Amino acid sequence: MVDADQTFVIVGGGLTGAKAAETLRAEGFTGRVILICDERDHPYERPPLSKGYLLGKDTRESVFVHEPAWYAQNDVELHLGQTVDAIDRVAKTVRFGDDGTLAHYDKLLLATGAEPRRLDVPGTDLAGVHHLRRLAHAERLKGVLAALGRDNGHLVIAGGGWIGLEVAAAAREYGAEVTVVEPEPTPLHGVLGPELGALFADLHREHGVRFHFGARLTEIVGQDGMVLAARTDDGEEHPAHDVLAAIGAAPRTALAEAAGLELADRAHGGGVAVDASLRTSDPDVYAAGDVASFPHGLFDTRLRVEHWANALNGGPAAARAMLGKAVSYDRVPYFFSDQYDLGMEYSGWAPPGSYDEVVIRGDAGKREFVAFWVKEGRVLAGMNVNVWDVTEPIQKLIASRTAVDTEALADPHVPLDTLGA
Ligand SMILES: Cc1cc2nc3c(=O)[nH]c(=O)nc-3n(C[C@H](O)[C@H](O)[C@H](O)COP(=O)(O)OP(=O)(O)OC[C@H]3O[C@@H](n4cnc5c(N)ncnc54)[C@H](O)[C@@H]3O)c2cc1C
Questions:
Q1: CATH topology for 7-115+250-322?
Q2: Is 174 helix (H, G, I), strand (E, B) or coil?
Q3: Is 131 close to ligand 1, i.e. is its CB under 6 Å away?
Q4: Domain 129-247 class?
Q5: pLDDT per residue as tens digits for the range 141-183
Q6: Architecture of domain 341-418
Q7: Could you state, in order of their start, the residue ranges of all structural domains in the chain?
Q8: First-to-last CA distance in the chain?
Q9: Quick one: which of 47, 158, 231, 275 is 20 to 30 A from 215 by CA?
């Protein structure tokens, strides 16, 4: 039973933390809600940072989860620019800020997200080496891309994942020269596999992006603090005025680890281990969003999902669990991306090795299709490219766990919602 004397503390003011605070109030929680974040900006959404905001199409105001006044209006005690550096699970306190303020909690939510991995190569500290996670990073990168476009400059992007490709698209729109260095044989290899990865390579090549596959950056060459070139392990040197390290993100687990909470093993993406109700190994501590590794019944494995929809839904799910409601967090993972005039949504989970075929419904050549990753007839994942309003039937097919007729799956005339029933 939760009463008005209780205090719920949320560490991390990304989308997960902000949505959890919103849900606590929406569910009628009348106790204290304390939200602590090391960033100075009010909680904001990150997807525009590599898309509309980076391109100057979305305003700064449009990225925030709530209006700044919302927090006070909803009695959410917001501590911005303050890092939580310790959790005492016996005293049930968190310590934060320069003066080591202690806040008591009855329930605690860890929504500490993830941070960009750093390139561990000589030259990585040069001023022209960038990462993209925060609003301030996007603001800086926007200026960099505009200058590169103006001066016909070169951007080398380490990593052909979602962020690398979205920035490549933005950089080309600014008119910069772009080279993407990627160790795998295609971009997005680890998520989409070689079949659909190749399609994204073609899309970017058509827009003038150069790829260097099968190679890693080994050195960023600079002079007087400026980037001059990027070297790869096969001995090539690419001219560069700026470098973006887009080599993935690591879950921010240090706080949980120091507090003795159970972590998921790296083979499952690491993160703070939670059960299906997003509860950690301590019954009063929860974790959600990018930092959490939860057991997913549909795929019979633990997943750590670094996507917007998981923050949007995971924060509220954790909040409900903290309030003592029955929660089983088993949503089909979902994400989206926009690059040039290609928009896509992906539902499910099907890394290379987990599926036996990719079934295409529609015209892949025209980039208007749905791709399905299938194992023994069962749909593990689906991606709609420039085709809309199909996420619900795709997710139902995945959740049904039944084998479907793959010829019917490939046939656009067979309605998706008649399959897998
Ligand atoms: C550039 C970019 C583009 C993206 N585009 C897409 C997209 O198109 N589609 C999609 O599905 N997903 C996208 N994502 C992923 C999506 O934004 C993340 O999944 C989402 O932000 C996760 O939210 P979160 O709240 O769990 O973590 P975060 O957003 O990382 O927020 C965690 C917050 O906690 C703070 N924090 C951490 N430790 C502490 C501490 N000890 N004390 C205080 N504060 C702390 C962090 O600084 C941060 O502010 C993108 C991500 C980035 C970076």
A1: FAD/NAD(P)-binding domain (3.50.50)
A2: helix
A3: no
A4: alpha beta
A5: 999 999 999 999 999 999 999 999 999 999 999 999 999 999 9
A6: 2-Layer Sandwich (3.30)
A7: 7-115+250-322, 129-247, 341-418
A8: 40
A9: 47
DSSP 263: B
Confidence band for 2, pLDDT divided at 50, 70 and 90 = low
Cβ of residue 137 lying under 6 Å from some atom of ligand 1 = no
C-beta 46 within 6 A of ligand 1: yes
Which own/partner pairs from 268-273 qualify as long-range (CB within 8 Å, at least 24 positions apart)?
Answer: 268/293, 268/301, 268/302, 268/303, 268/304, 269/293, 269/302, 269/303, 269/304, 270/304, 271/304, 272/110, 273/302
Q: Residue 34 C-alpha to ligand 1 middle, in angstroms?
A: 19
Q: Kindly report the pTM of this predicted structure.
A: 0.97
Distance separating alpha carbons of residues 233 and 219, to the nearest angstrom: 9
Atom of ligand 1 nearest to the CA of 85: 41
β pairing state of 107-110 and 7-11: parallel
Q: What separation in Å is there between the alpha carbon of 358 and the centre of ligand 1?
A: 30
Quick check: 56 pLDDT over 90?
Answer: yes
Question: How far away, in angstroms, is 290 Cα from ligand 1 center?
Answer: 7
**97 vs 36, 92, 164, CA distance in Å?**
9, 17, 33
Strand order in the sheet with 285-287: 76-80, 32-37, 7-11, 107-110, 285-287
